[in-house]
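Notes from the 1:1 (GR / supervisor)

We went over the backlog. Supervisor wanted to see one worked example end to end before approving the batch request, so GR pasted a single chain during the call. The sequence is below; no edits were made to it. Supervisor asked that the structure be written out right there so they could see what the output format looks like.
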Amino acid sequence: MKLPTIMRAYKSCLPLLTLATAIAAASAAPAQAFTLFFGEDINPNPQDTSSTFDDIVNSRAAEQDFLAELDRYGTEDFESFEPGTPGPLALEFEGLGSAILNGGGNKSSIKTVDESLLNDPNVPQALKDDIEREIRLGRNASSGDQYFLTNAAQNFQVDLESPAKAFGFYAYDLGDFEAKTYLDLYAAGELIDSIEIPNRDGSNASTNGSAFYFGLLSEDESEFFDQVVFRMNGVQGDEFAFDDLTISAGKAVPEPTTLLGLLGFGSIACLTLRKRSV
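Structure output shown during the call:
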């Protein structure tokens, strides 16, 4: 009998305060504040992850809420890399710029859970063993078959080509051995904010194979960032998967049609002013 999936999801934002409370808290509150999106699906059977999360309902809902707030965004799904590719990785965000993913230790690399490769006689046995290991331990891809695997022993970071206003991602199997993750956001080398990811704490594989989606959205330009550091708490042996990293550019580039429209509007305005001056 398949046990029901234990799931929770929420979208966090700043609480409403009375005017008096807001004034009192203003001096103690951090300088920055982001709108956060989070949805988590806890694995109901940590000892058997072979069919974990055919539908990660809460994680998907959090991603949808996050993307609905963005006008333009790009996603790196790691499908273009060869399995086993180590960092640093050159990421592409679909016309919104590029980034470099670096760090995480020498075991961090691209993994695949493409089960069709298990029956291919041309695939090395080492890769087949690796696929079976990832499936057995509850790692998965939120889209496609590939993801970035790292661990809590070392930090890793994403250095963006240009400032972003939003950042989101999926994670699998994070925290089942007490790993904690914080996102440190930087702009031009200056720390803007540190945010703790609120996934459920686990120990001794008690939440093995769980999944979540986390996204953050800047309130204004003062919060735009060009570097995201995944700051780990140094736990040895807790490996986990990241997939579908999404960014939204801090400053939108006008589409060609929009730019032509603006130029046309400017020409009309100039003609109008010239007529009025005659």
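Supervisor's comment: Residues 54 and 142 are 10 Å apart (CA to CA).
Batch request approved.
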